[in-house]
Structures are given as structure tokens and as C-alpha cells.
Fold each of these.
Amino acid sequence: MKVAITSTGNNLESKLDHRFGRCSYFVIYDLETKGIEFIPNPNKDAQEGAGPASVQIVASRNVQKIISGEFGIKIKSLLDSLKIQMIVIKEPEKKIEEIINMLNN
Amino acid sequence: MSPRPFRLRKISNPPIISGFKPYRNKSVDEKAEAIFLQYEEYEALRLCDHEMLNHHQASLLMAVSRPTLTRIYSKARQKIAEALVLGKQIIIEGGKIYFDSEWFSCQKCGCYFNNPEKQTEIKECPLCKSSDFSNIGDVINS
């Protein structure tokens, strides 16, 4: 199963990005193979429609869960219909590594 | 006296498209009138004619009374029939609705998560695997 995490940077020390649509990087983590992939987000500075475009990127990798700080109103209904689980973490100081360790426990 | 409060209709699956366009002769004005099919009417039609539920079951899923569901449903059929007969385009939008998925909050790690699969029950927090979480109700409003 794959999980997407929004990140502010492209290494494990980076912190969670609290925005979903305009985050800097997506981290795609595979729970079975433990593979980690960083994808730069092309919608980072988009004026509008960043959310749905980002959902498309993430959904094309077949993730089943998305971890972020917040999801916009357009995204919630979209992800509901795609049956992707949203996980909201309200601690902005969390590192990607810590989140991955939590998922592995 | 104030009128009776309006019950928001619950939408489980929003439509994947935003409307339909008629396929027709170019001589007819492209920007002809459109029929606005509301989300709640789409949902009633989906539950009754696609998932083959009866009006009572569908009304429970949309959190309205059975007569209200029947009213929404017949409105949906009227609109679609009108669009087909008069060759109008259908735009699905609007309606007093909210999208549904159950949300939970975990007491151990403090995260929030939802359950996108209504058939399966959530047994543990997806992040810290703790079973100490509670339902925070349907919080997403459209």
C-alpha cells in the first residue's frame, strides 16, 4: 500500500507541509517495499486549481492514504469519490522521517 | 412564524462529470439553454436508478424524509426528460448539500482521519495504530 505525504523539502529531515495543493514536494512511501520517492509539485505557485491537479498527480501513483496538514473543500469531495483516505496532522513541526516511522510501527 | 428549517441533503458520491452536452446539428445555437440538475437530484437518481434502492432506503442515505426524497427524485426525472426531449444541455451543480464521510480523531497522536470506505469499519488509527480514537461526526459542509 502506498501513502502520500506532503513535504516542504526533498529529504527525510524536511518537515510536513501543512498545505496539500501547494506543497513543495510529495513523498510517496510504499509500505511493502519501503521505497521512498520525492516528487516536486508543479502546482506549487499555481493561481488556482492546484488542489485538483495535485490530486491527479497523487492518484496516478495509486496511493490509498494522504497525509497533510489541511485539505481544501474541493479536495475533500474529490478524495471521497476516489476512496482515498485523508489523514490530517495538526503538528507543523513533524518531520517526514518521524511520520514514516509511525507508519511502520 | 419562521419557516421550518431546511434539511441539508447528504451526498455520498459526487458525480465524476459536471454535465452533458447534446450532440446536434451545428445550425442550432451552441449556447442554448441549459438545465441545471442539482447535486441532490443527481444523488437521488443515482441511489434509486443506479444502485436500485427503494425510496425509503435512499431517503435514509440522504438524511431526508421519504416524501422529500420522492419529490427530489421526480424533479430529477422531469429535468432529465426535458433535457432529452428539448435537446438542452445538462449542468450538474448547486443544491443545498454536504458531502459525507465519517471523520475520526485520534487521542494518542492527535491526528484526524476519515473513512472513505463506508463498508469497512475502522479499527485503528492509520498513523499510530492506536485504538483510542473517536468519531467527530460529519463535519464537512459544502
Amino acid sequence: MFTRLFYLLVVVVVGVTSIMACRLAQAPIAEIGSSWFTGPLQSIIGAPANAFRDVIANVQNIGELRRENQRLRAEIEQLRQENVSLPELQRENARLREQLALRQALPTFRWAEGRVIGYDATNTVRSIIINSGSRDGIAEGMMVISPQGIVGRVVLTSPTTSKILLITDSSSSVNAVVQSSRARGVVNGGAGGELTMRYIAKGEQVRTGDRIVTSGLGGVYPEGLLIGTVIDVRQRDVDMFQEARIEPAVDFARLEVALVVTNHVPAKLD
Amino acid sequence: MTGTLILLVSATLQSSVLPRVSVFGVHVDLVLVLVMVWSVRRGFDEATVWGLVGGGLVDLYSAGPFGVNVLALGVVAVLAAAAGSALRQARGLVLLAYSPFGTIVYELLALFILQNLGWRFDWPAMVALVVLPAAIVNTVVAPLVYWPLRALDERLQPQTLLG
């Protein structure tokens, strides 16, 4: 018991002496101690402690970073998909504008739209297959156009599809007229898919660049529809008629949508 | 059934995909090549069926009158079977020699039938721009079709692919 009291006394004496010494001394012992001893010690221990604290903070942030990463990836994917569909939407927009212009140019026509889903399986016949048929009001003999010009005529229908013989087919004939000079002739398809205007009277004026349109004769196609443009004129002295090679107005290799005119019934002349 | 499926898929490809791949202004007559190869290898019975079925499928994908390709392909198939049976030991070479001949017969026969049904053609231009290029293109493709069909033939013997 005496020993415990002794130690207690020592503690009290030292403590009181320290307090009184700090209060009476000129130099602040606590500040001196902290700047010479505890400060540097804290700096040495503090740096790794700070690093450890950063690690802990980063570990806590990983979950949040992962979520943000996923959100940003999803956003990028959505933007990428929008980027892919944007040109298609622009094309569709341009196509619909062309159709609107066509409707304004030909206000009396009504048409059923069909997307090209196939081509003739043979090399001898030039035709396309569209995904509209009799249940869309399409019948055999109806003419087919596009905003660029005439395409052909319907030769066969099913409820959901139609086969269209193109004007570039060898057996196709369209009564035509040169738009500027009104020279008449017949546009035939050819073996290689080319168009030739034949039976143009020799004295008639036909020049490269002239536009060829339907004349309305024969009753299959009404007058004024664009067929193509003259690229070459052939005329020999021994021939009775002139011939002109025509560049079709429609690019059949790239044709995606065809318009079947449903309210113009071709005249039957037999 | 497998044979019909092969012909159906080929006819569909010939109508929807192959016309976009044009060589010398023509596309591969895949159904014709298949029919020629199988007819050379398998003989008259299967040649007849393949020719008629293949021709019917091509007609379904064509704006020409139905039956044109049935007749034209049927004839070519029978002729191919005759050539194959005459030279059994060298059927690969027979096919190589027959391909241009078979294509020319097929194209000319189809044109002839169409003309008799009211279609009009410039025959010299058709031969120069369609028939001869098609003969070249089909002859080049025939060996590519021959090897897988030969493997199929050897696996199936003596079963048939139709029925």
C-alpha cells in the first residue's frame, strides 16, 4: 500500500511540475516537443497512412466507378446504334421526299408501294420481285414507276408478291417521244439490259442529252413519264430510221422501292 | 427432302443474292450447275427429278412462263446423266467438258421456248452477251460445286437425296 501511494505521489509531482514549468518557462515545451519529435514522427507515419487512406477510398469508389463505366458503355452503344440508323433514316427521308414530289407532279395517280425482294433467277429475263401483291390492289398489266422514271409492268401477282418485267428486258417495248423535238420512236430493252430507241424518222432531231419520255401511244404507259436520256445516236445513210442508245433514268441495280400505279388500267388493244 | 432443300436454297440465292454479283454481265446459274453435277454423278433417275424440281423452282423465281426452266433444265439434266454414264471413270473431267455445253443448251433452249411463247430476242446479241458469258461463268463455278457434292454423293451411296 505504501508503494502504491509512493508512485501516485511521483505522478502528481511530475505532472504539477510540468504544468507549472510550461506556464512559467519562456519556450513553449509542448510546441517544442511537437515540432522536434512528434511532428516528424507524425509525418513519417502519416504519409503511408494517407496512402492507405487513399487505397481505402479507391476501394470504396470501385463500385461507383464500375457503375459509371457501365452507364457510359451503354450510352456509347446507344449512340453507336443511333449512328448506324441515322444514314438509313436520312435515306428513307430522301426517298419519301422524292415520293412526295412525285405525288405533286402526278396528282391523279394512286400507287401501292413494294420493296424489291428479288431479281429474276435467269439471265435471259430481266425482272424484279416486290413484296406487294393482289391483296394490295395490284393486278397484272399495271405499270410500275419510281420517282426517277418508269420501271416496267406487272406480269404476275400473288397475294403478297408481284413480278415486274423491267423496261430493260429484251421483250419490253415502250412508245416514246423525244421531249424537246417530239420525235417519236419505240424504246426496246436489249440483251445486256440496255435501252435503244428505234424507228426514229431520219429527219427528226435527236441529240445526246435529250430526255426521252413516254408518248402515251399503246395505252400501257400514260404520256410524259421519264424513260431515260440519250447517250448516243446512230444514223447510217442506208438505214430508214435513226437509233439512239438510252441511259435508263432508273438505276435498276440499286432500285429498292417500286410504285405500282393502281388507278391507271392499261388499254387492251386486241 | 435434302435435295429439294438444297435446290430451294440455291434457287433463292440465285434470285436474291447472286444477281448482285455480276461477272461479264451475267450471274451464276447455281441451280443449273448443281443439277449438272448431280446428274453426271447419279445417273438418269435422279437427273430427271433434279432437273424437273430445279427447273420448277427457278420458274417460281422468274417472270417467264412457268415450265420454261422445267423443260430446259430437265433436258440438260438428262444429257448430263448420259455423259456421266458414258464416262464413269472420269466424271470430273466429264463435268468440266459438259458445263459449257450444258449451259449453252440450257440458255438456247430457254430462249427458244420463250420466243415460241411470244417473247422477242435479238439472238446474236443474246448469244454474245448472255449465253457465252454464262457458259464461261458456270464452267468456272462447276468445280467448286463438284467437290462438296461428290463428298455428299459418296456418303450417301446408294441412297437418294430426293424422296
